[in-house]
Amino acid sequence: MLNWIHSGGPVMWLIVAGGLIALLIFLERLFHLHRAQIKIEDFLNGITTNLNRGNDVEAITICDQTPGPAAHLVRTALLHRDDDATTLTQSVREAGIREIPRLERHTNLLITLAQVLPMLGLLGTVLGLLHMLAAMQAGSPLVEIGTLTDGLWSALLTTAAGLITGIPAYAGYHFLIGRVEAIALDMEQTAEEIIRFLTRPNAGVSHES
After folding, report:
1. What is the tens place of the pLDDT at every residue in 52-111?
2. Taking the CB of the first residue and of the last residue of the chain, which one, N or C, has fewer CB atoms within 10 A?
3. Which residues, at least 6 apart from 19, have a Cβ–Cβ distance to it below 8 Å?
4. Can you say how many angstroms the Cα of residue 47 is from the centroid of all Cα atoms in its chain?
5. What letter would DSSP give residue 53?
6. What residue numbers bound the domain in which 102 lies?
């Protein structure tokens, strides 16, 4: 493997470095988004149950202990529950807007790498072919086969490496964006339900006898 990387030349090292960065970004984002996606129905049931019993502090504590943006939106709503409906809705909406960039953090770099890595592979191909032509010109009319194969190896290896790293990075980006969209839908659903609950006339009043 190291021999192949060495044969690819300086461009190959750039591709390998970019591929490792893309892998680290994907794994970090995957872990973060996995923690951010919670069971919304169970979470809201726990919140509303405590609110109906008058346990506002316990409801906020549940939000603090629950990871993910949906819990943060509910916490924001609880802190603004005494505001009018318009102000409450606006506060929750603004909190949601601030959460989206956090979910999408580093994904722009990932898609950039997915686009750049194959281009680096193409650059390595061109440089490898130029090396072959230079060797042919310098050794004309007799050219050693080993001199030509060095350029050919560099061309083919960098092309393959650019595709091997770029394609998974591109697929990983779209996978992560799909997870972000799913969490965003959960956030929207959560925000609507908690606002509806808090703005109803008997919100926070226990129904227990």
Report:
1. 888 889 999 999 999 999 999 999 999 998 888 899 999 999 999 999 999 999 999 999
2. C
3. 113, 117, 161, 164, 165, 169
4. 29
5. T
6. 2-198
